[in-house]
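seq as requested:
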Amino acid sequence: MLSRSPRISAVSSFAMPMNSIALAEELAQVDKSLAKTALQDPRIKRLMTITGMDVTMALSIVVAVDDVERFSSPEKLVSYFGLDPRVRQSGDKPAYHGRITKHGRAHARPMLVKAAWVISGVPGPLRAFFMRIRDKRGKHVAAVATARKLAVIVWQMLTKAEDYIWSRSWIGSSKSWN
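struct tokens:
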């Protein structure tokens, strides 16, 4: 069994917090710079009118979607994010709807689910939807169902160039990076 020198372990345990502090500061600067650049895009500002959507989530969704005109319907966007349920059907038997397919953009799907979790704690129609599904199927299924509904709302907002109708105007000021 190898033993570590007390001097080496003391130095490495002292250096780690300093490196993580410097890394955290550097990441904060990158986030701030990225947010300032991202807020110049009207699509990102529009998505941030959704309660629970911050700059990082909106930027991830806009980057994943690119041009919303590529998707002829909201169902196509939901499928692109991999939030549509698997359907198994054979012959005249009824269709079986299973778990989500998880096909598509893997980094944007968790952003929508994360936004759904935030939305679940804020009063509004999406929270009511989350609570209704949570009572029937459980909180994890409700979060994914809310993320799917959020993807449909994103498609509608970007296609019609309209802000979220249930937004609270005073929230937008706290989301921006000054």
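The longest strand covers residues 96-100.
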